[in-house]
Amino acid sequence: MGTRREPTARQLRLAVELRKLRDAAGLSSREAAAKLGVNSVQISQIEAGTTGVSEERLRRLAAQYACTDEALVDALAALATDRARGWWEEYRGRLPTSFLDLSELEHHAAYRWDVDFLHVPGLLQTEEYARALFSSRIPRLPESELELRVHHRMRRRVIIESASPIPYEALVHEAALRINVGGRTASRAQLARILDLSEADGVTVRVIPFVLDDFADVGAAMVYAGGAVPQLDTVLRDGPHGTVFIDSAAQLAVFRTLFRRVEAVSLTPERSRDLINRLTKDL
Description:
Elements: H1 9-25, H2 29-36, H3 40-48, H4 55-64, H5 70-81, H6 97-108, E1 111-116, H7 127-135, H8 143-155, H9 158-161, E2 168-173, H10 174-178, H11 184-198, E3 203-208, E4 222-226, E5 234-239, E6 242-246, H12 249-265, H13 269-282
Parallel strand pairs: 1-2, 2-3
Antiparallel strand pairs: 1-4, 4-5, 5-6
Helix pairs in contact: 1-4, 2-3, 4-5, 7-8, 11-13
């Protein structure tokens, strides 16, 4: 297979998981290459995500690494053999790579959790709300790129609006719902949109109310995408230097715990809808 100049996050994840399996087996890249009958450069390229790996070779590697988790090996094989070009590819070279990586991750996710404190999660946003957010960016985006980002964000909603949506749960702080974004009319339409989606199959919206005890240590905004197996779950965090993809087992366990803690103190879906209804009437 030819080498890649810029592997996607999904391709890099396969590379990382194969490296983890080799490390768990206690083999060096040279030893792994010898067992497979290839040179160590090929192993290094596979583990860097710069070259692909066939299903047959992947399964041979897993066998050499004594991996007995068949579900994980099957999931890795699916990662290795996926050659589909999704709708997000039309934005390649026009939007930052992280936008495309997020779209691809969502497309393959088994489920999706969001926790947000300052903004309505992207999958719940209206076009007007998204445009207002992107318009506030400093330095200001060119109009053409702003509209591309809005259009891309609207297309991402397919994972919860298609005929076969994935399970989606959003935990949104009351502050995010009260912040006026794009004017009163746009904010009212945004709240109405959340109410509509909260009634959709597979969508659960819970509000984190202002009045809570012992909440200071669980304020971690996140996007959590469930993989085909738990080992392939991914957390996304927005930082000062861009989006960070988190995949270590220890960190994933922490974020799963954090999500359940925030979920436990959030309002029920019914009480959340009541609160959003009141906020809509107050605008």
